[in-house]
Design goal:
The structure holds 2 protein chains of 2 kinds.
Chain A (H helix, E strand, L loop, with lengths): L2 H11 L4 E4 L7 H9 L6 E4 L3 H13 L4 E5 L1 H16 L4 E7 L15 H5 L10 E3 L4 H18 L2 E7 H5 L31 E2 L8 H19 L3 E4 L6 E4 L2 H16 L4 E6 L1 E3 L3 H7 L5 E6 L5 H9 L4 E6 L8 H13 L1
Parallel strand pairs in A: 1-2, 1-3, 3-4, 4-6, 5-6, 9-10, 9-12, 12-13
Antiparallel strand pairs in A: 5-11, 8-10
Helix pairs in contact in A: 1-2, 1-6, 3-4, 9-12, 10-11
Chain B lengths: L22 H15 L6 E5 L7 H4 L3 E4 L5 H11 L4 E7 H7 L1 H10 L4 E6 L2 E2 L5 E2 L18 H4 L5 H6 L6 E6 L3 H19 L5 E6 L3 H4 L3 H15 L3 E5 H8 L1
Parallel strand pairs in B: 1-2, 1-3, 3-4, 4-8, 7-8
Antiparallel strand pairs in B: 5-6, 7-9
Helix pairs in contact in B: 1-8, 3-5, 4-5
The chains are: A alpha/beta, B alpha/beta.
Chain lengths: ~350, ~250
């Protein structure tokens, strides 16, 4: 089972009952798998006429209370930004998968992490954020997809699973842990006919004096709660490390291999892996920072997350960057050499 | 004096903030009347469009969803697929449905989604101040066609009903108007037929409704009614363009 298929099956297990998407490489296994399996599980699969239509189908399905998902890759995710902004504004839950490819423009179909800014800083118009999960193996594609549906419902927010072309195509063993539904609030806001209640209205337009600012205040409060409660990260050998490599997703697979080799050789090096890119593990990085320690952010882009690492450590440590943009992949050996140079001073 | 006619319960007793002579008021009323006549208020979900009629969610006393410009047929698809027992309608203007949302309306119609679409064609963008719409007539002056719509650069009035009637998916496609009591009655009947299509699982239906916008046409309400009759109806012929039941019979 490929990563993309594991993610698709996890969505079914999590009770996703509606999927709409449009073909784009390298994520086609997701709609293909769901076209076979979702109807049999009682759900709806639609191959939409466009990415724009797909996200708006998800918007409609979610407004009616369904667990809904769409998936795409970078150029298609750009098209979905209008709908993601409306989901955030109307406070509708949805899961959006981006199996990133190289950009800008049509770019290429290689793995990339160049959509970091788009994913974590809002992407569409208006002041909004969404929870962004960055799985780094097939196990996490499974686990974080299950979690994404729960968090989307808990916060009534779009949630993104941010993978890449390698992760989606990767085959490796994983444990398909059973989905256990947590206690979540009833969707009393959902549309479905006003039987024995006042009509529900789901909207993002707030025209009355001061109304939109108050709505924005509520959204920001939600994001503060996410920052307090929902940060996920993983550390490797950071205790005595003089150099901490920070990377996420597939870049972390490469970086951890290089870091382990250097650690075996006795170098004081560690690794920090944000699993949630929003909320970002700001406090955890800040607590690790200090004058005797440097950070190096490693990304498959020209330097995006490095800005958030710098904000987090706030000048307490030097923050270096190594990256390969445009769908180019670094090898563990290449990174090993680069890190060793840095450690030697 | 006794009030002999009141609003239908599905239309709230609040002021409708439309301009004098605007067709939205009549069309809102007709939709509400039909919802109540068919006794489907508690099953119905409406979509408010972008434009003057966005406030439809304040006027209809039913579950309502506000949807991005042009996207109601896609959202309605998602809604109806997950709630097949609900009655779903989208209410859209000409900029929404015939310009920015052409892909969504064509493909929802082509899939034969079991939804009702009420398409209000007033040949202009009302809310944004009277710009050229895809349905603006040849030579019609708007704020973005100051010399009148020139087909050489701005194309031709888009005939949505005829376009959609060419598809296999739709069940009922018609064009009507709200300029006269007789046409208002026809419009009401077509709205009812559209909802009945859904109730009987016959699939997609769209009723295009020619409607006046006196404010942006720079006319009085009575002038705008005459203009609608003499100019719009000349370009956009009224009628039923597709009735799948009948079509199937004639095909044998």
């Amino acid at each position: 089972m490929k990563g993309n298929e594991a993610l698709a099956e996890a969505a079914i297990q999590a009770g996703c009952s509606f999927y709409a998407g449009y073909p784009i490489t390298p994520q086609n296994e997701i709609p293909e798998y769901l076209s076979r399996k979702l109807p049999a599980a009682g759900g709806t699969f639609i191959q939409a006429e466009s990415e724009v239509a797909a996200i708006n189908m998800v918007y409609g399905a979610s407004a009616c209370g369904a667990r809904a998902m769409t998936s795409s890759s970078s150029p298609g995710i750009s098209l979905k930004q209008e709908g993601i902004s409306f989901l955030a504004g109307a406070e509708l839950p949805a899961v959006i998968v981006n199996m990133q490819r190289g950009g800008p423009g049509l770019g290429n179909i290689s793995a990339s992490q160049a959509d970091y800014f788009q994913a974590v800083k809002g992407g569409g118009h208006g002041d909004y954020r969404m929870i962004v999960y960055a799985p780094y193996n097939v196990q996490e594609l499974w686990d974080l997809t299950l979690l994404a549906f729960d968090k989307a419902d808990e916060y009534r927010t779009p949630v993104m699973v941010l993978g890449d072309g390698i992760l989606g195509q990767m085959m490796e063993p994983f444990e398909p842990t059973p989905y256990v539904r947590p206690l979540l609030p009833e969707k009393t806001w959902a549309l479905g006919g006003c039987v024995n209640r006042q009509p529900n209205v789901v909207r993002s337009l707030y025209m009355a004096d001061g109304e939109l600012e108050r709505r924005n205040g509520l959204l920001q409060e939600k994001y503060r709660t996410m920052k307090a409660r929902d940060v996920l990260y993983q550390t490797y050998d950071v205790g005595d490390a003089e150099l901490i490599v920070v990377s996420f997703g597939i870049a972390a697979r490469i970086a951890i291999a290089a870091v382990r080799k250097l650690r075996e050789e006795g170098w004081k090096i560690g690794h920090f892996r944000p699993v949630t890119l929003f909320p970002f593990p700001e406090r955890q990085l800040r607590e690790l920072a200090g004058p005797d320690r440097r950070f190096m952010t490693v990304e498959l882009n020209a330097g995006q997350m490095v800005e958030d690492v710098r904000l987090a450590v706030n000048g307490r440590s030097d923050v270096l960057f190594y990256g390969r943009p445009g769908g180019a992949i670094m090898t563990p050996e290449e990174l090993y050499e680069r890190l060793k140079d840095e450690l030697k001073g | 004096m006794n009030k002999t006619i009141d609003r239908s319960p599905s239309l709230k007793k609040v002021p409708l903030r439309y301009c004098p002579g605007c067709g939205h008021i009549i069309i809102h009323r007709l939709i509400a009347e039909v919802i109540d006549a068919l006794n489907i208020r508690e099953r119905t979900i409406g979509i408010a469009p972008v434009g003057c009629a966005v406030f439809a969610y304040d006027y209809f006393d039913i579950d309502m969803l506000e949807v991005a410009h042009g996207r109601p047929p896609a959202a309605a698809t998602g809604m109806k697929r997950v709630r097949p027992d609900s009655i779903v309608f989208s209410y859209q203007g000409d900029g929404d449905l015939a310009s920015i949302g052409t892909a969504e309306i064509v493909h929802a119609a082509n899939r034969g989604e079991n939804i009702s679409v009420f398409f209000v064609n007033n040949a202009t963008y009302g809310m944004t101040g009277g710009q050229m719409a895809p349905t603006t007539l040849r030579g019609q002056v708007t704020t973005t066609t100051p010399k009148g719509r020139e087909t050489g650069t701005a194309g031709y009035p888009l005939h949505v009903a005829e376009m959609l009637a060419a598809l296999e998916g739709p069940s009922l496609i018609a064009r009507t108007a709200v300029d006269s009591p007789a046409n208002v009655k026809t419009t009401r009947d077509l709205i009812e037929r559209s909802f009945r299509c859904q109730l009987e699982n016959k699939g997609f239906s769209m009723i295009e409704i020619l409607s006046a916008c006196p404010t942006n046409w720079n006319m009085t309400p009575s002038q705008s009614t005459i203009w609608l009759r003499e100019h719009m109806m000349n370009e956009f012929k009224l009628g039923v363009f597709r009735d799948a039941g009948k079509a199937n019979v004639t095909r044998g």
